[in-house]
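Sequence design from tokenized structure. All designs in this work follow the same two-part layout: the structure record, then the generated sequence. An example of the structure record is given first.
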């Protein structure tokens, strides 16, 4: 159902505003004077920019932290809307993005599809957080919105590349229809034994009980 809805909009299916607003209270900024003076937030599939705008508005009031939003969107109409609400927006394919590991957080809600027997969600994640083109700084926050069934194919890359992984599902109003979850992780490696344990756990997920 989620994939069909996504394809009907050229791969575009935004996170419901209600779910984004439920995420906000769970985010905390650990400010250390002299060490962190800014947060760069990236959404490489930003659509109309609504999700990143909500996060930006919630974070900007934090004293002494400069929050800057960066969006990437390929579709022209959505790009124009995003450019009006985000600090910086690029009209381009995410795969052509050239960036160093300077982003403190990345919200990733990629198109839902399967091509050549590989999920597009995994391809997006690997491209943006792999060694060749990683965009997140050390301990940078990942918020990865995917269908629950995609946890298994993404498990190995997630656990090799991120630590402190947590998975929450959408609330009943939206989960029952689309079965989406959000994976939170901190960029960095855990011990190999923990990686294997976490990957096994993610691959075995059949029902996520934790809600926002």
């Amino acid at each position: 159902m989620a994939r069909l809805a996504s394809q009907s909009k050229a791969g575009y299916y935004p996170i419901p505003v209600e779910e984004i607003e439920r995420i906000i209270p769970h985010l905390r900024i650990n400010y250390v004077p002299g060490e962190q003076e800014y947060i760069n937030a990236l959404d490489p599939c930003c659509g109309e920019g609504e999700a990143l705008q909500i996060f930006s508005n919630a974070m900007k009031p934090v004293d002494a932290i400069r929050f800057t939003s960066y969006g990437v969107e390929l579709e022209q109409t959505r790009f124009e809307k995003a450019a009006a609400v985000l600090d910086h927006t690029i009209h381009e394919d995410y795969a052509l993005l050239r960036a160093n590991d300077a982003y403190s957080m990345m919200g990733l809600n990629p198109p839902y599809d399967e091509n050549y027997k590989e999920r597009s969600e995994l391809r997006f994640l690997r491209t943006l957080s792999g060694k060749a083109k990683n965009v997140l700084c050390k301990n940078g926050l990942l918020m990865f919105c995917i269908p629950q069934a995609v946890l298994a194919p993404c498990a190995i890359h997630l656990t090799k590349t991120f630590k402190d992984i947590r998975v929450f599902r959408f609330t009943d109003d939206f989960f029952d229809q689309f079965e989406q979850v959000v994976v939170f992780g901190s960029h960095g490696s855990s011990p190999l034994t923990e990686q294997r344990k976490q990957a096994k756990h993610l691959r075995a997920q059949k029902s996520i009980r934790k809600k926002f």
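Strands lie at 38-43, 66-73, 88-91, 103-108, 114-115, 118-119, 136-147, 162-169, 180-187. We note this feature because it recurs in several other targets discussed in the main text.
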